[in-house]
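Our collaborator T.R. sent over the components below with a one-line note: 'Predict the complex.' Nothing else. No constraints on interfaces, no templates requested, no preferences about which chain binds where. So this is a plain run: every listed entity goes in together, and whatever single assembly comes back becomes the starting point for the next discussion.
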Amino acid sequence: MAYDGRMRCFFLIAMLGGCAPEVEPSAACEAYVTCLGARDLARDRNTDVERFVAGGACWGSHEAAEFCTGACERGLDWLREAEADTLPTECSP
Amino acid sequence: MRAGLWLLLLLPLAEAHRPAGDIGDVEITDATISWLIPGTFETGDEVFVVELVMPTDFALPFEVLVEKRPRLADHRPMYAVVGPGLPTPTADELAVLPYPLPDGWGVYLDQNDLPERIVYFEQVMRRNMWTSGTTALPLQRGPNEVWIWSPDGTTGDFQLGFGVEEDFSDGGFGAVFADWGTYAY
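Returned assembly:
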């Protein structure tokens, strides 16, 4: 069977580590990032959330994803309770 | 006793936290990477203070861990992250804090009181830990602090973990091998 260009590319990427685990961002962290973005806008801040978005350190393995997802869930629950009077609607469940 | 640890952050940047030396005798140069800082309550009335100087507004997870051993079953260190931009504490929260809050600062208080403790298998040192549960917190640029204390006066080891991004580019495990007794069974 002859290799076409796409297949050669696939094997090249695999050899270079392109097959390392990559997990999709969880809904919990997407909600957390959305909330912080809206909260920042209201406060004229700019919070670095790089680790929680696609391609960030949270999504390099299933263990990291589980770790971050729990952190996002608890972090968002806490914000909703502690800043209930001021949090933007984007943070609502 | 107020044990201090300065974290001087230069640039913003895991699941395996980078180990540091004992709390109170180590300086961390970048709190935007993942750290695991051990400490020991010798008398139970200590308050450990970790100072975080954030180079930018930065959201990161925090947790307190205790090794899962029968003699530490009741050892549940409490911690508070305090800094500008965090929510104003309730009266109940203020009553629990070991120190007065600096003017204009808010607080995240973790009482580490989940009815069923979360067990986490720490893969680097390969041991089971009880964790308070990880909570992502948005810190503002500039000085912030973490206060850790033992509300019931229990004694024993604990570890403060924070951050996600790993960086072992300069070795990173030197503190483990320099102080093996802290980490080894």
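Summary for T.R.: The first helix of chain A runs from residue 5 to 18.
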